[in-house]
Structure formats: structure tokens, C-alpha cells
């Protein structure tokens, strides 16, 4: 297969969609903070599904391009449709099993391998939650997302109002090194 770069209009569209998804991911993190107790359930689900939908749009846009270019086999092979979870059906047994593992409840009695696996993932997430919040990868991710959002909204001072001090400090450093994007000269 010939190796050609992604067409510029498609590349720009994908970059825009990824930017939107990142913004939604930052808001998911924002609504997990203690000062958002009144709206965390609603807003984390809204923004998490917005991020997922936006990334679905990016994947489908790329797949449509591949199909248009006669590469339907590529689109079918790499789209990973088997991993798609149908949100419209609501939480399934495996999702409830994962919550049980996360909350330290007994494993559901089931012969379903998917539910057993999700329960184990829930236990894994619960164990991860016991590690200090200053795990380097977690701090870096949160600091980058919050710092980027603060820089783009020109509201760096807001970082101190809702973030734990260490993350706020790192996010401020991220925001400080970022330049405000300027429109390209005409």
C-alpha cells in the first residue's frame, strides 16, 4: 500500500475534533472537584459522552475517507467496532460488575467472562485509587489539561479556586509556558 500523508483538510478536521474532545475531558476532570458536588453526576456524564462522541466522529471521518479512497478493508479492520459499547442500552451487567469491584463489593455470581473481567478492572481501579494522587502520570495529565484550559480562557487565576495546590501549581506552570494562539496572517 502506498504511503501518503493525510490530506490537509482531513488533518485539520481531526485536529479540531481532538481539541474538542480534550476540552471535554478537561471538563470531566473539573466536575470531579469537591466544589462541584451539586452537579458532578450530570456534568461528568455529559462531558464524558461528549468526548466519546467527538472521538467517534473523528474515527468515522477517517473511515469514511478510507472508504472513499477504495480502502474499505482498512476502515473495517482498524475501526475496532467490536469495542463499541452501546450507551443507548444503558449500563450492562459488566458495567455493574465493574462498579461492584470499584466499591469493594462482593463479585457478582455469573458465568459471564466479560462481567468477571470488568469486576477485576473495577478492583484494579480501586487499588489505583489507593495510590497517592501525586502519581506522576496522573499529575501531568491533569496539569496539562487544566493549564491548557486556563491559558485558552485567559483565566489562570481560577486554577487556585478549585484544584488541589500541587496540581494548581503544575497547571499554572503549563499555562505559563503556553502561548496564546494567534490567528494566521491573512
Question: Which properties best describe this structure?
Answer:
186 residues, mainly alpha
Account of the protein in words:
This protein has 186 residues and is mostly helical. Helices cover 66% and strands 0% of the residues. It contains 8 helices and no strands. The longest helix has 29 residues, at 40-68. The protein is flat and about 65 Å long. It starts with 7 loop residues before the first helix and ends in a 9-residue tail after the last helix. The mean pLDDT is 85.
How would you summarize what this structure contains?
The protein has 186 residues and is an all-alpha fold. The protein has eight helices and no strands.
- Helical/strand content category: mainly alpha
Give the helix tally: 8
Main sheet overview: none
Shape: flat
Low-confidence stretches: none
Total strands: the figure is 0
Tell me the Rg in angstroms: 20 Å
User: First CA to last CA: what distance?
Assistant: 38 Å
Q: Please trace the helix and strand order, writing H or E for each element.
A: HHHHHHHH
Query: What percent strand?
Result: under 5%
Helical content (DSSP H or I, runs of 4+): 55-70%
Arithmetic mean pLDDT: 85
Amino acid at each position: 500500500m502506498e504511503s501518503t500523508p493525510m490530506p490537509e483538510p482531513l488533518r485539520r478536521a481531526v485536529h479540531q475534533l481532538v481539541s474538542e474532545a480534550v476540552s471535554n475531558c478537561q471538563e470531566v476532570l473539573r466536575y470531579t472537584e469537591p466544589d462541584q458536588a451539586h452537579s458532578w453526576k450530570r456534568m461528568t456524564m455529559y462531558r464524558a459522552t461528549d468526548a466519546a462522541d467527538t472521538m467517534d466522529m473523528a474515527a468515522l471521518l477517517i473511515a469514511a475517507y478510507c472508504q472513499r479512497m477504495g480502502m474499505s478493508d482498512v476502515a473495517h479492520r482498524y475501526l475496532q467496532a467490536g469495542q463499541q459499547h452501546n450507551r443507548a442500552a444503558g449500563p450492562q451487567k459488566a458495567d455493574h460488575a465493574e462498579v461492584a469491584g470499584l466499591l469493594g463489593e462482593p463479585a457478582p455470581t455469573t458465568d459471564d467472562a466479560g462481567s468477571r473481567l470488568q469486576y477485576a478492572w473495577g478492583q484494579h481501579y480501586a487499588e489505583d485509587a489507593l495510590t497517592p494522587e501525586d502519581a506522576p502520570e496522573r499529575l501531568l495529565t491533569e496539569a496539562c489539561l487544566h493549564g491548557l484550559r486556563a491559558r485558552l480562557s485567559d483565566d489562570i487565576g481560577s486554577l487556585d479556586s478549585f484544584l488541589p495546590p500541587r496540581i494548581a501549581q503544575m497547571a499554572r506552570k503549563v499555562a505559563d509556558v503556553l502561548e496564546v494562539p494567534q490567528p494566521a496572517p491573512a
